[in-house]
């Protein structure tokens, strides 16, 4: 079976060497030397000034939202992983869904503007598949209404916009370093702040609000991450360029072979560069996408429906109508992509897909 995705593991010796240090120091959590080294190396690698390593991408989203002074509505994309909308609700805000752009699948700034009310506290937009949102338009909406623009950058390790890391945009951004992402720390996430004051607040909140041993600055949570997770991050960071290069090559190979097919491919934002993490295909109908998944399965190929269903249709969230997101999520599938997927396997996948007409 060719799986849809597969987590990357670094050379065992590299990880073991870092573990030896953990045993020598007997320091396994609470902002240890590996966590600090990981934050430093990650910020150098992505050229980001303020990063905070936390326990998950979802925790990064929640901490980011927790910086809002008041609860209210947060305008967000219905085409994302459920964690985006859940984080909003879990923080006591109301997710308000603004539909997506049909080609790029990122939030439509015009729809965002239509959803602004006096209760709007923030915009939380997802750079879906590492494809940059309409950053300038969202920024000007944020400025006009005096609300922050946050990004769910879960997919954005190695994605760029105008030559800079995509995580560098917005008032804050959240990265996921979960095992299924192209760069991972087993479980984990990163809050990217734009200034030292924001970072200080995030760092306090992720550690129960501790400011010194017996002093608490504000309400916090246990959002820290451990030395073991940082060790995995440090080991994989050394392979990051190789991983990105491979993934981009694999994506380009799919692209070259599918550009003239019956499938619709997503449109990458001008001056944007994705990390090639995902290869979404839009089938002509829901039925066709289901038939394709079944056919591929028979041939030993697993296809995933990233991202389905549209979040605005979930019964525990704020239901509303987003026809574009509902339509796209009903007929989108993602092709297998992982570090050691061979060209031979890609050919097999392409053969199966080409037998099938859209
Ligand atoms: C993976 C993912 C998350 C959640 O990250 P975790 O690290 O799994 O908590 C949030 N948003 C999107 C778009 C994701 O794909």
Plain-language structure description:
- InterPro entries: DegT/StrS_aminotransferase, PyrdxlP-dep_Trfase, PyrdxlP-dep_Trfase_major.
- GO terms for molecular function: pyridoxal phosphate binding; transaminase activity.
- This is DegT/DnrJ/EryC1/StrS family aminotransferase.
- This protein has 358 residues and is an alpha/beta fold.
- The protein has two domains: 220 residues, Aspartate Aminotransferase, domain 2, CATH 3.40.640.10; 115 residues, Aspartate Aminotransferase, domain 1 (Alpha-Beta Complex).
- It is 39% helix and 13% strand.
- The strands form three sheets. The protein has a seven-stranded mixed β-sheet, with helices on both faces.
- Helix 6 links the parallel strand 4 and strand 5.
- Helix 2 runs parallel beside helix 8.
- The longest helix is centred in the last third of the chain and has 19 residues.
- The chain is globular, with a radius of gyration of 20 Å.
- The mean pLDDT is 96.
- Pyridoxal-5'-phosphate binds next to helix 3 and helix 4.
- The site of pyridoxal-5'-phosphate has 14 residues, from helix 3 and helix 4.
Helix-strand blueprint:
Blueprint lengths: L11 H14 L7 H14 L3 E5 L2 H10 L6 E4 L5 H9 L3 E4 L11 H7 L4 E7 L8 H11 L3 E4 L7 E2 L2 E2 L6 E5 L12 E5 L2 H10 L21 H11 L2 H19 L5 E2 L6 E2 L6 E3 L3 H13 L24 H9 E3 L8 H13 L3
Helix pairs in contact: 1-8, 2-8, 3-4, 9-12
The protein binds pyridoxal-5'-phosphate.
């Amino acid at each position: 079976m060719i799986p849809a995705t597969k987590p990357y593991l670094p050379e065992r010796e590299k990880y073991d060497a870092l573990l030896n240090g953990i045993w020598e120091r007997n320091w396994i959590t609470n902002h240890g030397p590996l966590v600090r080294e990981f934050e430093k190396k990650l910020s150098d690698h992505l050229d980001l000034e303020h990063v905070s390593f936390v326990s998950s991408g979802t925790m990064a989203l929640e901490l980011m939202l927790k910086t809002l002074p008041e609860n209210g509505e947060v305008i967000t994309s219905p085409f994302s992983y459920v964690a985006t909308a859940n984080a909003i609700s879990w923080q006591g805000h109301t997710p308000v869904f603004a539909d997506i752009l049909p080609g790029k699948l990122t939030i439509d700034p015009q729809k965002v503007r239509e959803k602004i009310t006096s209760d709007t506290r923030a915009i939380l937009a997802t750079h879906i598949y590492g494809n940059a949102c309409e950053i300038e338009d969202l920024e000007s909406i944020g400025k006009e209404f005096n609300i922050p623009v946050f990004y769910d950058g879960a997919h954005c390790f190695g994605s760029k916009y105008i030559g800079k890391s995509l995580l560098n945009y917005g008032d804050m951004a959240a990265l996921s370093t979960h095992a299924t992402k192209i760069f991972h720390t087993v479980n984990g996430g990163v809050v990217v702040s734009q200034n030292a004051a924001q970072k200080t607040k995030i760092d306090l909140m992720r550690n129960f609000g501790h400011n010194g041993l017996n002093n608490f600055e504000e309400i916090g949570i246990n959002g820290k991450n451990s030395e073991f997770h940082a060790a995995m991050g440090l080991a994989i960071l050394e392979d990051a360029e190789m991983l990105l290069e491979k993934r981009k090559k694999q994506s380009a190979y799919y692209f070259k072979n599918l550009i003239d097919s019956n499938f619709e491919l997503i449109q990458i934002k001008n001056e944007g560069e994705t990390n090639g993490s995902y290869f979404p295909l839009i089938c002509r109908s829901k039925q066709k996408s289901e038939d394709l998944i079944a056919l591929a399965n028979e041939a030993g190929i697993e296809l995933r429906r990233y991202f389905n269903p549209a979040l605005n249709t979930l019964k525990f969230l704020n239901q509303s109508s987003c026809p574009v997101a509902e339509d796209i999520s009903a007929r989108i599938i993602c092709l297998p992509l992982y570090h050691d997927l061979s060209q031979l396997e890609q050919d097999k996948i392409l053969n199966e897909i080409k037998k099938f007409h859209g």
